[in-house]
Specification:
alpha+beta; two-stranded antiparallel sheet; disordered N terminus
Length: 520
Amino acid sequence: MRMRAPRFLGLVLLSPLSALSAPAETPNPAPEESRDEGAETPQGSNAESAAKPEAELAPRASLEEELGALLQPGGLTSKRVAERTVDTSARVEAKRRAEASAAASASQVAQRFFPRLELSARYTRLSEVTMPAFGTSEGVSQVFVQGESSTATPVGPSDQLMKVTPPPFAFPVLLNNFELKATLSVPLSDYLLRMSTAIGAANEALYGAEWNRKAEALLVQTDAKIAYYEWVKALGARYIAQKSVSQVQAALRDVQQSFEIGTASKADVLRTEAQYNQAKLLLSRAERGVHVATEAIRTLQHDPPGAQYSVGENILEDVIVDAPATLEAAYQEAREKRLELRALKAVESSYRKQAEAARKDNYPRLDAVGNAIYANPNQRIIPNLGTWDGTWDASLVLSWTPTAIPGVQSGARALDAKAAEYAAQRQAMEDGLRMEVAQALSALEEAQSAVITAREVLRASEEGERVSRELFRVGRATALELSDAQTNLTRARLELFFSHVEVRIARERLMHALGRDVTE
């Protein structure tokens, strides 16, 4: 009796991700063993059953048992990958540096309002000059009354006069001048008009930088977890592709035997060979997918080349996600919790306060200024004979620069424009956030539905494979029919495995979209 032509074995087992991957470490399975030409083949309808090795009819394992080989105690988990990635991420480090810069700027703004103490030391060499002399012989005479009394009295006609000439006198010329000076300035008007606004603007900028750094860390964390699950998906795809190659290889041996005994046609052999080659091609793609996904994990964690990993997270465990009941509720939750929105709002507020502080530069300034001078010679002491003397002074200085008003106004308008720019960015992010939340909710619902559907398909495939095995044992099914059932079962297991992975990916994206990954 002639065997029925085999159905297409459904070897499109791999996701688009594995089709885009690069070569990995697992070698392709060995080609099929050549049959001993001298061996005798049983004839009749049970010929294939007799030729089938006992191992092929061993009880099949469950999906958990099949993929349990991928799970290793102490292996890599998504949490560990996320932590390691955040610790070594250049993106997070850049935001950390920006936060440090904002903190330094805030400290600098506060220090602008401290009383200003300026210390100076000066040495001056003067050129020589000729000072006028006072009290020469040609100078003014002083008149005294020459009499018995020493008390000066008005000069009368009968008084005897005497002309007295004082000695010459001139101020000394000191060519070397030394001065030590301390000046203390206190910006009184700034305390009333500018200080609180300027410091508030600097603090808002610091808050924005801090939230930007935290938001970037959360985004890097989410990306790292998704990369981990994509790596696990690639490993699962490779494992099941290897099993598919083994199954088609066994089917090819059976078809070749059937062809030699006349129960299969040459076309059956060629079709099965094509299926086997296609299975090997898909396995090669899966190998490349594992290679690329593993390299992504190494790069994210900044591990050395050649680092190897094992899976430490049970992907087949069900996950429960407490998703919001409606899209509007999810959107409102995201608006309250997402740090990116807080950062934009803080930066916007910072620019508005900077503009407010800038406009106050139009007002007059009032400063208290004090000086302490220790000099040789001290200019306030006349005459000075080259000695060190100390003096001090204190002033209240009211100043106003009306010509600076146009420039101040222009600067304030520029700051207002920057604030409006960040307000528009925040509005755009809110619009995008609604779409992000909607997509995350939809992806989660789709992944959860896929798990339910994949379980139903797996049950049907398991039952179909069980029936085919029983029929094969009693000779009522061919080896290709059994191989077909096994291939369908392999595909169903792969789909369920992928569905579990997609649920985890959708969960991470939804948690990030809602801002539930914030740990503050």
